[in-house]
Structures are given as C-alpha cells and as structure tokens.
Amino acid sequence: MSERFEGLGAGDRPLTPEQCAERARAAAALVDLAALDSSGAGGATLLWRTEHSEAWLNTWWQPRDTGYHDHGGSCVGVHVLAGRATNEPLVIGGGRRVTTHEAGSSFSFPGSGIHRMDHDPGAVTVHVYSPPIPEIGHYDVVGGELRRTAGPPDEPSAPSAGLLASLGADG
C-alpha cells in the first residue's frame, strides 16, 4: 500500500498534532474499505515511515483495548474510517474522560499524553505519529505501584486491567 500514500509522509520537520490528524484524514480517503481482509482479529499495517512521520492502518475485527500507553514522545492524529473507537486519557484525581469517535471523525493529542483506546468490533482507523514512535510505554499497576514497561513500536500493547481496576473502572 505504501506507494498510494507516498506523498503524505513528505515534509522537512515534525508535524503538530493537528497536522497529524489532517494527514490521517487524507490517508483514510485513500483506503478501500471493501478491499480489506476482515478475517481474524485484525491488526496494524504500516502505510509509511519517513524521518518525520509514520502512519498505521488499524483494522480491529474483534474488540481491542490498547491499555494505557504513551507513544514515546510522538504526537498523534487519528481518523476513524469505520466503526467506533473510544479514547481515554489517563486522569488521576478526577472522573474518567472517555470520548467516543464514530466513522468520519478525527482527533489528536500531544506526545506527552498517556491514553487508552477501545475499539469496537469492525473499527478501522488511521493513526499518524510524528516523529515516528521510538517505543510504546505500557502502563499498569503492579503491587500497588504504577509501572511503565517499554515495548517495541510495532507491537500492540496489552489491556491495563490493574490500572483500570484502581481507577474504579469496570473495563
């Protein structure tokens, strides 16, 4: 797929969160939903990676909770092509802030954020990160302490069951 998205990764500097969302919308317009393989659980396909940005097409045919994670300092813009996805920043000392995004909507946030996304079955999203993600930091509660575990940028993070429980969430 990368030839189709070739020009979207161009640029001579890192993108802002809003520019990432604009590129995610532009990339989404080039995706043929009918041509996607909907067998299995789904996954992530790299659309492009340049010095200043990268984009992933995420197809989740089964429910998918990313757990609380960060992007190693990279900002992100997300566009929902199909289905529904929720975004939830990690909030301490206040109520949960869960925002639902339907097909056709976009959102973005800075590289300093910690969040989780929950994808309904059939959710298809495009995520543009800038700069490319160096690692994904996964967060959970272990022995009563908040822990961050670094992982590779191209492997999905696991749900944060202990952290959700400590926030009083049922998942």
Shape call: globular
Here the CATH topology equals Jelly Rolls
Mean pLDDT: 91
| Gross CATH architecture | Sandwich
Number of domains: 1
Strand content: 35-45%
**Which stretches are low in confidence, meaning pLDDT under 50 for 5 or more residues running?**
none
Estimated helix fraction = 10-25%
Radius of gyration: 16 Å
CATH level 1 class label: Mainly Beta
The DSSP helix count reads 2
- Biggest sheet statistics: 5 strands, antiparallel
Q: Tell me how many strands there are.
A: 12
- Secondary-structure class: mainly beta
Spatial ordering of strands, largest sheet: 1-2-10-5-8
Written as H for each helix and E for each strand, in order along the chain, the element string is HEEEEEEEEEEEEH
Folded structure, characterized:
- There is one protein chain.
- The protein has 171 residues and is mainly β.
- The protein has one domain: Jelly Rolls (Sandwich), CATH 2.60.120.10.
- 11% of the residues lie in helices and 40% in strands.
- The protein contains 2 helices and 12 strands.
- The strands form 3 sheets. It has a 5-stranded antiparallel β-sheet, covered by helices on one side. A 4-stranded antiparallel β-sheet has the order 3-9-6-7, with no helix packed on it.
- A hairpin with a 2-residue loop joins strand 11 and strand 12.
- It is globular, with a radius of gyration of 16 Å.
- The N and C termini lie far apart (34 Å).
